[in-house]
């Protein structure tokens, strides 16, 4: 069992037998385990998973949605989460004590979540409260570790999703004058700008150098953005936008708000993963899209809506590498271990951390 606040783990060795099986053999093995485990097993699958894994998902969605559905599924004792570690942590925080959350490969992490750890955040809070007093409230994107969610919960803040970030920022500003936004600077900047906050009232906190970067007048600051980002979405750049506008000006650009401010401003539409899917779902046949989000999802949309023309904004884009750690061999192995009564790769958040993190999540859900 992996006890986690700060994510630290060594992936157990995957038996060679799973590496030697064909995809067809693994798929048949997974189907049989699902049948045998029945309602005792629940498999949530994130939108960014590969098709060969997502086909087995009992529910597909974003990270918080999947954690909530897992918690509501009281009849399932085993949650085999096809996502990354912070998602499995959130599921463990929200599920009950009789449910066990399993991550098929402990190496399935998130580079963004890893850009803010407990020690960095505590030091940052000390520096920033010395500068700004008690005028700051922290918010964290759900794409963060249990430790960071707990920190935010202890300090009166809340979690946010890319779908509700605007509403959560409005709430936070009703509580305090300034927001510390972790760990994705782009979602924080894009959301605050949409609320009418100018860029010169936002600053970036560099957790490595432990300084605020490039600020002339700290008295004007309203948004303190943690210097973190999604390694996938930061790969959509203005040169991609400019090339597309020149080559195919009729094609609409649709991006996720984890993209940079420049790219988001230049796009035709920007919104959460759910928003992106909904825009494509309701678009008429013949609509042309260039989408700035994870490649597995873009390719799935392309297959699902062949009557539309769907491409990636970055033609050289690759899928999220850590999300792709969840593959057929590890997934099959995880189910075999559950069936054998062994909770290999169980994610278990420390109870005190879980309590504080749950406060941050519940504040969001109540707003």
Whole-number total of structural domains: 3
Q: At the third CATH level, what is the topology name of the largest domain?
A: Rossmann fold
Category by helix and strand content: alpha/beta
The parts where pLDDT drops under 50 for at least 5 residues are none
Mean pLDDT over all positions: 94
**Kindly, what is the distance between the CA atoms of the first and last residues, rounded to a whole number of angstroms?**
34 Å
- Global morphology: globular
Task: Bin the helical content.
Answer: 40-55%
State the major sheet.
6 strands, mixed
**What value does the Rg take, in angstroms?**
21 Å
Tell me the strand percentage band.
15-25%
Number of strands: 17
Report the total helices.
15
Task: Detail the topology: elements first, then pairings.
Blueprint: E1 2-4, H1 16-20, H2 23-37, E2 41-42, E3 44-46, H3 51-54, E4 59-61, H4 63-72, E5 78-80, H5 85-94, E6 100-102, H6 118-132, E7 136-141, H7 146-154, E8 158-160, H8 165-175, E9 178-182, H9 185-194, E10 202-206, E11 211-213, E12 223-226, H10 238-247, E13 252-255, H11 261-266, E14 269-270, H12 273-282, E15 288-292, H13 295-304, E16 309-312, H14 328-339, E17 346-349, H15 351-366
Parallel strand pairs: 1-17, 2-5, 3-4, 5-6, 7-8, 7-9, 9-12, 10-12, 13-14, 13-15, 15-16
Antiparallel strand pairs: 6-17, 10-11
Helix pairs in contact: 2-14, 4-5, 7-15
